[in-house]
Design a protein that fits this description.
By secondary structure, this protein is of the alpha/beta class. It has a single domain, classed as 3-Layer(aba) Sandwich (Rossmann fold). Helix content is 48%, strand content 19%. The protein has five helices and five strands. The chain has helices at 14-30, 56-86, 103-113, 128-134, 137-144; strands spanning 5-9, 33-40, 94-100, 118-122, 149-152. The protein has a five-stranded parallel sheet, with helices on both faces. The longest helix is centred in the middle third of the chain and has 31 residues, at 56-86. It is globular and about 55 Å long. This is Universal stress protein.
Length: 153
């Protein structure tokens, strides 16, 4: 099968770097367009050690901290995508996307919306109880996607 549009999910992990290597190579060999997608956490919230009563003053403080956390999350996502883009061969047409949401749902929705032919995603290598309890983004994408999925290790 000839791929025209390839999506690589990037989170900065070793697994996603391997996915980037594979996706870039496939795109280079098939002349496909490569999209690098990073999904940010839905709602970054500041962490507190306990429960505090919320007054008007503390509500605005929490709101400011949430805005700062969102900015930091976006900056981090942009850095991840920039580093990834620098590793793609220059002859490969590359796009980037930075989105909010649940990772597996967002990846599958993006692939469907933009007519992606192949999703390449890394495996975090969870095993045993952690995999059972936490699940796996790559497994959820494999199950839910309407296109071929390549999971790299």
């Amino acid at each position: 099968m000839l791929y025209r549009k390839i999506l690589v999910a990037i989170d900065g992990s070793e697994g996603s770097i391997e996915a980037l290597r594979n996706g870039s190579e496939i795109a280079k060999n098939s002349g496909a367009e490569l999209t690098l997608l990073h999904v940010m956490h839905e709602s970054p919230l500041p962490l507190y050690g306990g429960v505090y009563p919320l007054s008007v003053a503390s509500t605005s403080m929490v709101r400011e901290e949430v805005i700062e956390a969102e900015k930091a999350e976006q900056t981090h996502g942009e850095e991840i995508l920039h580093k990834a883009q620098m590793q793609v061969p220059p002859e490969v047409e590359t796009r980037t996307a930075l989105l909010n949401g649940a990772p597996s749902d967002t990846i599958c929705a993006y692939a469907e919306r933009y007519n992606i032919d192949l999703i390449v995603i890394g495996s975090r290598g969870l095993t045993g109880l952690k995999k059972f309890v936490l699940g796996s983004v790559s497994q959820k994408v494999l199950h839910d996607a309407n296109v071929p999925v390549l999971i790299t290790k």
